[in-house]
Amino acid sequence: MNDKELFTQNRLFCPGPTPVPDQILTAMSDTSMYHRSDEFYKISRECSAMLAPLFGSKNLPIMLTSSGSGGLEAAVVNLTAPGDKVVVVNGGKFGERWEKLNRGYGCEVSVLNLSWGQSPKASDLLDLIQKQGQTKALFLQANETSTGAYYRIETLVPEIRKNFKGLIIVDCISSLCAHEMRMDDWEIDAVVAGSQKGFGLPPGLAFISLSDRAWGNLSARPRFYFDLARERKGQAEGRSAWTPASTLTLGLHAALKMMNESGLNELYKHHDRMARASRAFAKAIQLKLYCPESPSNSLTTMCMPDGVDGSKVVKELRRRYQAFFAGGQDQLKGKVIRYSHLGFVSVFDLINGLSALEFVLADNGHSFDFGAGVKAAMVELRRNTARP
Amino acid sequence: MNDKELFTQNRLFCPGPTPVPDQILTAMSDTSMYHRSDEFYKISRECSAMLAPLFGSKNLPIMLTSSGSGGLEAAVVNLTAPGDKVVVVNGGKFGERWEKLNRGYGCEVSVLNLSWGQSPKASDLLDLIQKQGQTKALFLQANETSTGAYYRIETLVPEIRKNFKGLIIVDCISSLCAHEMRMDDWEIDAVVAGSQKGFGLPPGLAFISLSDRAWGNLSARPRFYFDLARERKGQAEGRSAWTPASTLTLGLHAALKMMNESGLNELYKHHDRMARASRAFAKAIQLKLYCPESPSNSLTTMCMPDGVDGSKVVKELRRRYQAFFAGGQDQLKGKVIRYSHLGFVSVFDLINGLSALEFVLADNGHSFDFGAGVKAAMVELRRNTARP
Fold this sequence. Notes:
The structure is a homodimer of 388-residue chains. Chain A is built from 13 helices and 14 strands. Chain A has helices spanning 22-28, 38-55, 68-79, 93-104, 122-132, 153-161, 212-216, 228-233, 246-262, 264-284, 310-321, 347-362, 372-383, and strands spanning 11-12, 62-65, 85-90, 108-113, 137-141, 143-144, 149-150, 167-171, 190-194, 205-210, 299-303, 323-324, 326-327, 336-340. In chain A, the strands form 4 sheets. In chain A, strands 2-10-9-8-5-3-4 form a 7-stranded mixed beta sheet, with helices on both faces. In chain A, helix 1 packs antiparallel against helix 9 (246-262), helix 10 packs antiparallel against helix 13 (372-383) and helix 11 crosses helix 12. Chain A is globular, with a radius of gyration of 21 Å. The relative contact order of chain A is 0.17.
């Protein structure tokens, strides 16, 4: 038997890029759309308007042609100035990126270093902020993609807000669409997201939304390509400052329409259900969760049992099933695998991926009741499915 | 008669985005390609290798996920430091952009202001450089897209090089693929290009190639997303620092393969032939060229006769024929139209566009021998076509 027959094309189960549905692919095929035309301006305006509720803000997010890291840079260069004191949560590769960005741009950085897999505590952050004094901004993730920890922004940020009036800037690149974001209600000043995550698009667009307060307090420092004030000038008409990635914008429009049709509440429930099923799978075949206390709804990070090499599992999943899971990075290399259910991943896609994982684990020294994982996932999915 | 029937979809005759051939569209449809996979690394490496000859350099260009303006920013932030003395040629909107970028990033800028449509003279530039003293870098366009002037880099730069040893940085966003670039031979230190121009791709990628000297003298200033040294680290393996616009990269690979099949000399000859035909068209129906002395091979800028409103012509071309020409900007608004023949535009596409233009001019107060323009273009095209 040629295992590859099971799948006829690559299947993406990594935390971005996520699968692109045909409707979006088709929308992106309209390459003759001119970006300086009334037709395109209308699409841009509709994109901004449809994006805003995902950020939970009355303000329109800015769309940037860049990777998510470009969006993170936009937050730093528009909201901080050299010498500003900032606090950064570092609980993995992306917390590390906030730290590097802020240091690179001359901020004075205090870091809350977490053991990987942990989530920050409000009290630790407030202590650090008090110790630093005159903290201008706090930078953190909603979802630390390298560990799969979700930082429970909905309770963490309001807790911090009781004693911190500075800017709060949240990297939601891998959480938006999977976890609800209500930046206005929670008094968050900037939220960054990226196209190739919850939006089911290829990479190339980043989104950033600012609070009124952030818009009113843009910092003084040189910036050009990521100058948000410049982008905001033409936003009401749908004009971007620079040439936008027009085909990706057309895809975004299609993606947002699909999300709107199901409704955002359904979207969050869907991701919650997918994550619960993945956790049930792991439990049923004796894989420990890497972040049991606060696992993400975007991806599930599973520890490899002793004697099973996670890097080899990831490689074999690719080779035998064209299934692209993510492995562990740095200290987690070989020790975990990260399974993503972010974006346009259906219940049956999920079962496909988990099934492939069982095949590979069974052949790589893990001893378990073969099939029990998928069974448990199916039971969990059915429990959370509306019955006709 | 419904004029719109002539064309069944938008036709792009503006200087970017340019038409995307089906082969490229198909290549971009492989959305399940993972950007951290051997397959994608190979494609990235092949893209860099195929790009290099277009820049005329032994060095590999860096691919950035951004608009062309992001590439311009990369040149400025990697090669200048605050306080550096630079000279900028400003002969239109894009020269203006070099000026704004350099001023925004704290350089001391001397500007050679040209009347729009003019090309810079080496002697004027050398005078300015001598007057400024200790000029670190000279920034100019190869092709000023807003006017359609080509700055004859192949003679201008070697002339300047006789008396200037500083950095020479050329925006080739709208010239690459249409005009030959030999940055090593001409001792150019940085060349910037963009995907939606000569490469026949949608917007979203920028390219920048540096000379050995530039790589060896990167400036000290904060940068992150556009940090070229960071991008260069993984380049030999095909790894980008940030998540690349993967579908556009697949399209780029297809575009470069197509160019290689015809050969780069054929590519430059094609653009030269298209430009000659467009100029013959203009002459035959009494439209003056805006830059008669040094017109670009990427686009032809034609002056509107007295009494003909160029803005209205551009609008009608869109409404009646879905043909997207570019109008004049700022002081040229209404006075010129810009007709692009850059990228994957065939002889017959060219005739389509010129034909549409004759229809609209005839209905907007220009009196000429209807059909004579296309006839002249056809004669010129045949003159420069290999006979079987």
